[in-house]
Amino acid sequence: CFLTGAAKLVVVIAIFLLTFYVISQVFEIKMDANLGHIFAYLCCLSLKSYFPLKATKPPRYKCGISKACPEKHFAFKMSSGAANVVGPKICVEDNVLMSGVKNNVGRGINVALVNGKTGEPLDSKFFDMWGGDVAPFIEFLKSIQDGTIVLMATYDDGATKLNEEARKLIAELGSTSITNLGFRDNWVFCGGKGIKTKSPFEQHIKNNKDTNKYEGWPEVVEMEGCIPQKQD
Asked: Residue span of the signal peptide, if any (predicted)?
């Protein structure tokens, strides 16, 4: 049956109340004003329970950011890793470039490259800065072409094997925190090759046993924003 017993009862009550109210108005039946308001309210309440208003979903923007980006900008959202358990996540223009679900993240510094003109992904790699070698990371940084958007996020430890050359190359991408990045710090950064100023997109939390959210690691850092499209 289309209507359940409870729904039928609601409809019957609504019809009765509505009919009574209409008749009282047509035949000018006098009744207390408060009673009339009560009848009208109950009528509407009964009808709303049977015909609930459709909830309006809030708008969703690319990568789940809080507001839409203007024209000629690319939406991005990223987060560092959580301790040594949950890997970082990097999303650009609704494309998840790196995440634990994609199984392409790892201990150290995770890097995603994006075309600064089109927003298309170019490459993604991670470099172990605890037990690995910094040399491949340096060569990778040197190979990045001008006009490339560079997004970086730490996981577990991203600083132990960093040397001055690697830090300098990252600073040239627009980072200001890379010189202070230490053991098990959490850090996310978005810059670009050939950038002329310091990037506004950077978050850094120090590893501090007195303030760490996780034992031995600080809380996750998250960041979102709109990257200006590279113009010729």
From this structure: none
